[in-house]
Every structure is written in C-alpha cells, then in structure tokens.
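Example 4.3 (complexes with small molecules)
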Amino acid sequence: MNERQRSILLKSSSRFPPPQGVRLSYGTAGFRADASVLQSTVYRVGILAALRSLKTQSVIGLMITASHNKVSDNGVKVADSSGGMLAQDWEPFADSIANAPDPQSFVQLICDFVKKENIPLEAVKTTGILVGRDTRPSGESLLEAAKEGVSSIVGVVAIDMGILTTPQLHWMVRARNKGMEASELDYFNQLSGSFRCLMDLLPQGNKTNEMHTKLIVDGSNGVGGEKLEILMKMLTGLNMDIRNSGKEGVLNEGVGADYVQKEKVVPCSFGSADVGIRCASLDGDADRLVYFSCLANSNKIDLVDGDKILSLFALFIKEQLRILNEVETEKVEKYHQAHLGVVQTAYANGASTAYLKQLGLEVILTPTGVKYLHEKAAEFDIGIYFEANGHGTILFSEHFIRWLEDRSDKLSLTSKGSEQQKAALRLMAVTKLINQAVGDALSGLLLVEVILQHMGWSIHQWNELYEDLPSRQLKVKVLDRTAVVTANAETVAVKPLGIQEAINAEIAKYPRGRCFIRPSGTEDVIRVYAEAITQEAADDLANSVARLVDQFLGFSSSH
Ligand code: G16
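Answer. The structure with 1,6-di-O-phosphono-alpha-D-glucopyranose bound is encoded below.
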C-alpha cells in the first residue's frame, strides 16, 4: 500500500473513533448494535466493501439495516459480488477491523490483509459499492459514514441507492455483476413481468377463486410496505390491503414477521374484522415473509410459517418437473439429473421435515443464518431453503437454467401450448420472479399468491398440508452469550459443560419432545426452542430449559 493511501486512511479513520468498551462481531447477518455506537463500524465496513470490490473486481453491496431488531438498533452487512452474503472467510477480518482500538492498528490490519489477500489496489474492471438503507432514522448518518469509508480507498466509489429493502440491494448487486440493468424500476419490472407470466399460465378454471379474496399485508412499519405499494400498482388481479406501512406506528413494535412468528398473535391494526382472511407479514427490511389467519374471539393466529412456504414451493416445482419429464420421447433430451433438494435449520418444525421427506425430497439441516442455508442450497440443481422465521428463496443452477431455456425453445417449436411447454415456461418465470440473491418477502409473496391460484387453494387448505407440532421460542438474557457453543447444526450445546445433559434430562420428560439452545447472532440473548405434542408441554419444556440457561449462565449464576 502506498503512502498516499495510508495517510488517507489514517486521516479519515481518526474522524471515526471506535466506541469504548464495546466488542462487535459480524454475527448471523452483519454487525448489529444500538445505533449510537455504530458510526465507526459502518465507516470501517465501507472500507472492507471497497477492498472486496477490488479483490473481486466487481460491484459489492453495503446495506444499513438491523432488520427485525428494535428501531433504536441498526446494523451493517455486505452483499458479495454474487448478490449473496459476504464470503465467510472475510468475516474474521471484519471482526478484527471493527474492533481495532486506534487508527494506527486499524490501518496496519488493512495493510496486512491487502498483502495477504493480494488485493490489487486499483480497479481494472467495473467496481463500486451500492449503498442502501432501511427506514431507521439513524440510517441517514450511518450511510454517510459508509460512504466516507468507501471513498477512503482510492479509486472506489459509493453509489447511494437510497432507501431500499435488503433483498432489493442484493438483487441489484447480482444484476449489475451479470451485466443486467439494475435500477429499482428494473427490479419491479422483473417481478411484475414474471408474475404476469405465471398468472397467464394458470390452469383454466383457476383464474378467479383465491385472487378475488383479499390479502392483507402487515408491513412491520418498515420499508417493505412502502415498496409493496409501488409494486402493487404494476400488478393486476391482486386484491391487496397493506397495513403498518410505516406512516404511523413504530418499526417492528407489535408488528412484523418476527413478532407474528414468535408470539403467534395478531399484529397491531389487525383484529376481529379480519378473521379467516389470508394475511401476510413482512419484517422490518422485507427479507422475511410469513402468512397467518386471525382466529375468532382471540388474539391468536393460525401461523403459516417459512416451513409451509417451503413446502408449497417444493410441491409446485416438483409437479412442474414431473410434467416436464412425463411424456419425454427418445427424441428429446431428458434432464435426468434434476436434483431438487431443500435446506432447513433446527428451528424447522419436526412435522415439516417429516412431510418434506415423505414427498421424497432430500432435506439438509444447517446452522441458523441465510449464509449457511444459501451455500447448501446452491449445491442442488434446484435448492429451496427456508428458515421457519420466513427467510428463504429458491436457487436454480446455471446448468439447469440453460437446459430449461433450451427445452423451452424446443417445446415451442414441437409442442406449442402443450402441458410440457407450460411447465417449462412456468419454471422459467419462477427463476425470474424469485430473488435468487437472497430471501425476499416481496418476490416470495408474489410466488405464494400465484401458486395458491394455481392450486386453487385457500390459506386454510395450504395450512392443512401437515399439522405443526406445538412449539415455543424464548429468549434468555445472560452475562455472556458466547459461553454457549453448539455443534451438529446447533442441535447440541457443547459448552457450558454439563448443560446438554441437563437439557436432555428435561426433554426425556416429554413425549416427542425436542429442544435446543443457541446464542443469537443478532441480539444479545440465548434463544431456546422447544417442541412437544401439546402446547402446554412445549411451553413447559421451553421454560424449564430457559431456567437451566439462567442457572448456568444467567446474571444470578456463579458459573
Ligand atoms: C437474520 C438472519 C437470519 C436469522 C435471523 C435470526 O435475519 O439473516 O438468517 O434467522 O437473523 O438470527 P439469530 O437467531 O442468530 O438472532 P434478519 O431478518 O434479522 O436479517
């Protein structure tokens, strides 16, 4: 690194001193903390993104969001050149620069890393950082800090994309690096165009049922509601009512996908008048989606979570593949290896995993975090991944897409209008509608809506695919959440010593009981998940394990 670059970094970093007494970690989905301590971290991540851009000689994304966290928090994460999450082998560097105590050690870390990674400190191809933020009030000044970080690396520029959903930013990075148009309008055009295409391909007779009944969307008082309002104007046939779109009410407070999925109660602005109607909930930055219906005389809901969205998508895709392969003659090439697989985490309801296996699908379990699920799903020709909390998408391999395009072209010549051609066109439209960079509540919602139409199903019929085992999730505040270390896709706690044995003893008291603990990567808590055959048993199991966590690690603990 030359002297000029070094002195630019020294000068700019001295304007962003790190907070005292706070240790930050890149976590499940980037850095998250109270917004007041993040200026320095965001500035430093701006530098990291610029280095990543030079290393990959491509466009990189930087998003300022704390997603489902409370409004006073904020965060920052990097979208890699593929549009997916930052390469995991760069996370330790992110951790070390975020925590470097002074400008000298910070700049030295950068110099060492540039050398180790052999990063060319000049742009040969298209580089640049797309920067976006959600609607949090702290986002504006944090975005400025990010821009300062980016421009501290000579030759890399930040392009301010303004207020976006997180998946929009990921989509734009992916599109840019594929040489496609990548504005917000392009995003809306792609989603609305492919949705229209799927609507045109609905089986005859299914065109009126569900679409004429209302869908009510809870926007979590975040960016998603506002963007969905724009998208809705480009669509026909959807009768959608958007609530909690951020004009009133507090972000993620008593609203949103995280609240609805964890508490299993109606969000604010929903009530008795909505009983039986199909409802959906987005989270604060619109990368999660769950559905629900309100129950009569209660604030409880019937939850249709990420596992059921996954099941719906898997059923639809499996059916289209079956049609495509059904009447193959020897003359046409058959895609023998179309390998369809699904990826879940330990939070997946046991009934969903059993159902997916019964469908004959290969089910893989990973630790929590889109970065892990996405990586596994990419190993299939068609990989569908979802966390129960509503975070997920479908990935199609380049090889499969090429085959599909070719197949579709041939069918349009040999059997135009046939069921096979329609199945090929449907799959092609899904590859465009679904956001293949990352889970996207808006694109996921449109796909759910069109599949329900295709099946001619109500939300209730969809919900009846299988019956969830009762479950309960709790959070426990502890002195040091890093004291919990897990293994086997987070199903076993290997530290603190002895806690897993104590958990096992609790589980043994409940028929079909299942329970695990893990440190959250986005909040300062230990999460507890429990499942059993009755709600009371799931609640009891979760509560007793939460007490164990408190005994082993809590504020009153002597361990
Ligand atoms: C992020 C991640 C998700 C993860 C969630 C909760 O979601 O992207 O993969 O499930 O955090 O993680 P944890 O349990 O470690 O706190 P979001 O929607 O907050 O970005």
